[in-house]
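#struct-pred

JT: dropping the chains for the assembly here, can someone run the whole complex?
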Amino acid sequence: MPSPTIKGTTRGYVIPIGGGEEKFENPEILAKFVALSGGTDAVITVIPTASQLDDTGQRYQKIFEEIGVKKTYSLPITERSDAQNADYVKTLEKSTGIFITGGNQLRLSTILGGTPIAKTIRQLNAQGVNYAGTSAGAAIVSQHMITGGTTGIVPTEDGVNLAPGMGLINTIVVDQHFNERNRLSRLLSAVSYNPFLIGVGLDEDTAAFIDHNNEFTVVGSGAITVVDPSDIEYSSMAEARRGDALTLLNLKVHILAAGGRFNIGERKAYVN
Amino acid sequence: MPSPTIKGTTRGYVIPIGGGEEKFENPEILAKFVALSGGTDAVITVIPTASQLDDTGQRYQKIFEEIGVKKTYSLPITERSDAQNADYVKTLEKSTGIFITGGNQLRLSTILGGTPIAKTIRQLNAQGVNYAGTSAGAAIVSQHMITGGTTGIVPTEDGVNLAPGMGLINTIVVDQHFNERNRLSRLLSAVSYNPFLIGVGLDEDTAAFIDHNNEFTVVGSGAITVVDPSDIEYSSMAEARRGDALTLLNLKVHILAAGGRFNIGERKAYVN
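RK: done, full complex below.
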């Protein structure tokens, strides 16, 4: 569950990005994240923990500086003891926007899970600080996080692996590189485990800007595929054997390109 | 449009198969096609026109003989003049089951389209002769046939190429090797051109046995993905530019494993 908001404050944006958003000369998604976080006065803290590359934090600092951000930090958290570091927590508390890079989402959950850094991210977001994360940094936003699974279209009984995520948002499960890596089967497998979940599949260079009303707008060059299983009439998940193709009747699916909107609470898609 | 049925006769089965059904020791789908066509007394005629391999017809004759069929034919139709051959038409008329192999569906439409052979297939099916076709032979059953397109999940304005098929069945558009080759994007592109169409994506070793009531049962080891766009609330297809991701709101999707059923006229999925 997301950290409770405090009376008088408004939750910050939660912005999962499908990966690859930094490869463009005009990074529309990152620029919008900056604009919402104070523009040139934003204070952006990068957490590159998912990545195994030494320069990932600096690379993103540079991107944010090129967008015009005057103050950026990168926290070199590579093991659990780093995530207890009180100085890092203090730096984090100065942020108007927090950014988690791509890499391996299991590094994020195993290194950050349950630490002061994770707790601070959750509290700051509840108090109005924006969170954006790409690829692994997108996966981690949901309470139930996809860590692996089959590729393709058709779900199977063992088509997805889940782990607890950071839980900045509940009721959705996020997948990334969605169209590029053909990940519908694992998203369908995930939502059919428990149809209270809504599946949100993010293409590369595409983000869901989720506001404090639990409604998101699509930004970027690809699409977001929303899989809503709430009207499912029948699912063979409970009886299926390992590897079996599943039967799922009456899934609702929305494909949302830039400008499309989806209200998570009402499970309703819009345009305009 | 399918050929009209004659008073007192019942239309034969139309059985599109997603490909790869012949690679198994016990070819369940082909055995069921044979059983419906008279069992050991069936007369099965193979049309290998889609294939460029010389032995495709003989290979399928052998498979049907191993299932127990006493009488099999293969018609070596490789160009349009062959499809005018009156002897081939006479052989075809002896069939209780007609089988079209895989290969290139554009060979089927360009070589068979509008010929006496195509006309006879349509008439025989209307009079009760069963039709089965795998891969290219599955694609050709629909009036609007997919000949190519993008792979992936998300549909685009130019995501699919269509050509006129044999029209044994209307209102559905069929795709094959569906899960294996990640073909949801092209099927979604096809149904969003005109939402009267229902998309039917067949996995390999999986078939839709469509009966004379326009209802099909799933047979085989994979699944059939049914995409029903009839409740679409919004589609950006008409305004989208070439290559743009589309917005499509409120698609209905069913994933049907073996035993699943779908009534095409009522657009309703069932189990049991």
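JT: nice. DSSP finds seven helices and 16 strands in chain B. The two ends of chain B are 30 Å apart (CA to CA).
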